[in-house]
Write a structure and sequence with these properties.
Strand content: 15-25%
Order of helices and strands: EEEEEHEEHEHEEHHHHEEHEEHHH
Number of helices: 11
Radius of gyration: 22 Å
Structural class: alpha+beta
Helix content: 25-40%
Bound molecules: zinc ion
Distance between the termini: 38 Å
């Protein structure tokens, strides 16, 4: 397993671990129901006090991770450590929230995530994947649920290939199947035509355009109707799917500031000015009203992408 590479060094909560020569402090707390007053029965949390031990860790040059442990399902939950650090500058004790249902899902599918009300991704995973989590710390909280599952599957496959023999795969190979929703083959050409073969955010054509779904295709309401389509260049399509950029129901093009602040914190914000200068203020809409994005889809899409 991946976590074979994780080596315990010393410490008493926070513990010091190393993986591939990189050292981390890891504070582990049991996950509990979040109190009698809670409105959501699915909500659980850990509370962390800024003890001397913990404070020393925070002030060291070593990365500090906080994990919740849910004993019923034997699952870890991780919160974005870069954002947590800021909160400790303001308060002595903080609560970090999770969902029982997400932990249960992780016990079944090895890893699961959801976005909290601040748009932050909270990730639950089996202890086997602690190494995977630590190794990908810089960007793992940017991944959505299907990307995380893919990451875990990839690492499992790698481990299987690296292990001695193929005890688990007697025939020496395994078949991966995944469910695909039915697609309308005309979706692309209808979207391209409606938007004159140009990106609706920057008007670049150059064979760089793609037919993007407003409500993601993986979502149950992510249809192939023109009201759920928009033509975007490859850059804006990816940026839109990663919630970096979005548009509101007045078709204003907006940067997701929460996401940008996060990228700045983890040092992944290079080129921001260039990126910002590339987009117009408003979506370039099809002249024909019936081909324009559906308002309900815009709202649903922004919700699905963690934008409130
Ligand atoms: Zn574009």
């Amino acid at each position: 397993m991946y976590s074979d590479n994780v080596v315990f060094i010393d410490g008493n909560n926070p513990y010091r671990f190393s993986i591939n020569k990189k050292t981390f402090y890891v504070l582990i707390k049991n996950v509990h129901e979040s109190g009698d007053g809670r409105e959501n029965q699915d909500e659980c949390r850990i509370q962390i006090a800024n003890t001397r031990n913990f404070n020393d860790a925070l002030n060291s040059k070593t990365e500090v991770i906080v994990l919740g442990y849910f004993a019923d399902e034997k699952v870890f939950t991780a919160w974005n450590p870069y954002l947590m650090r800021d909160r400790f500058n303001q308060k002595q004790t903080i609560s970090l929230y999770s969902r029982f249902s997400v932990q249960l899902q992780a016990a079944i599918s090895k890893i699961a995530t959801y976005r909290d009300t601040n748009g932050q991704s909270v990730i639950s995973f089996l202890p086997d994947y602690l190494g995977l989590y630590l190794e990908n710390l810089k960007n793992i909280h940017l991944l959505d649920n299907s990307e995380l599952v893919a990451l875990v599957n990839e690492s499992d496959l790698l481990n299987a290939n690296n292990s001695d023999g193929f005890a688990d795969f007697p025939e020496g190979h395994l078949t991966i199947t995944h469910t695909r929703y039915k697609r309308d083959p005309r979706f692309k050409s209808i979207v391209y035509e409606a938007y004159n073969n140009k990106c609706a955010m920057c008007s670049i054509g150059l064979e760089l355009i793609e037919a993007a779904h407003i409500v993601p295709h993986s979502h149950e309401k992510g249809t192939d109707e023109i009201g759920n389509g928009i033509s975007l260049c490859a850059l804006h399509h990816t940026a839109y799917d990663r919630s970096l950029i979005y548009f509101d129901t007045d078709f204003n093009i907006l940067i997701n500031t929460t996401k940008m602040e996060y990228l700045e914190k983890v040092g992944l914000d290079s080129g921001f000015r260039k990126f910002q200068a590339l987009a117009f203020d408003k979506i370039q809409l099809p002249a024909n009203h019936t081909l324009r994005p559906n308002v309900e889809n815009i709202n649903l899409a922004n919700q699905a992408r963690g934008i409130n």
